[in-house]
């Protein structure tokens, strides 16, 4: 049985896409027109509409994040979250992506090449596409963050043997290796509480970005939506690992030593699946009536619990 089909509810766009069994299955992907390219003879320009409704199709906070993580693969990349527009030069094509799902592709050879680049682009940005069920970007569905799309009570395990059978499984294995590598780096930087400095986290962030990059390679090279979903799950791990670290660093009500201890706890939770409830209860106890600080600690606990849950899929 395909573990991804068990993991997501039928109403989720990921499950719907899996049922279709196609690489492109999000939105309508209707090519509005193909016409000769004005700037280059022998090439064509196309306008594609992913949704006929005039509403948000791509979440541009996530779209810009994905394009930034994958920018080494582009000749040029610019993305504006505020304007809801992105421009990339990729595989010799100039591509504009709009928040409402409109995509413009220039300098393609023909309609067949347009369909190929659209296929790749849709997969690459799939984490930013809004789910029809929960209205959240699909990367949140993949992380179980939307609370509506994942069957969290279903016992699903994705082991190494299964990943080796999947065409893009090696990318997933590399992504997980880099993910754990980042946790080890943070642990080694934080364990000596007397010399901890935030600047030392740069190398750990590098490993997290590499984990995200390998996940995007899986998504981009995927032959079906099962592989896309696997890539989205590990991409969500990398993105949310960064969020957890940043939340710990932003706890300005803690001392430098307490922040370092929190980072040690985060790393041990990831590496050893240790329970952290007791330590955080002690932290909350010390905060007494500082409700804003207590809320921030509780948010961190929720994020860590979700990280543990998603990581348990690969144990």
Could you describe the 3D structure shown?
There is one protein chain. The chain has 315 residues and is of the alpha+beta class. A hairpin with a 4-residue loop joins strand 3 and strand 4. The protein folds into two domains: 27-128, TATA-Binding Protein, CATH 3.30.310; 160-314. A six-stranded antiparallel beta sheet has the order 1-2-6-5-4-3, covered by helices on one side. It has twelve helices and six strands. Helix 7 (169-190) packs antiparallel against helix 10 (256-272). The longest helix is centred in the C-terminal third of the chain and has 25 residues, at 225-249. The protein has helices spanning 3-7, 13-20, 60-69, 111-124, 138-143, 160-165, 169-190, 202-221, 225-249, 256-272, 277-287, 291-311; strands at residues 30-36, 44-49, 76-80, 85-90, 93-98, 102-108.
Task: Jot down its keywords.
alpha+beta, 6 strands, 12 helices, single chain, six-stranded antiparallel β-sheet, 2 domains, 315 residues, TATA-Binding Protein
Write a concise synopsis of the structure shown.
By secondary structure, the protein is an alpha+beta fold. The protein has helices at 3-7, 13-20, 60-69, 111-124, 138-143, 160-165, 169-190, 202-221, 225-249, 256-272, 277-287, 291-311; strands at residues 30-36, 44-49, 76-80, 85-90, 93-98, 102-108. It has a 6-stranded antiparallel β-sheet, with helices on one face.
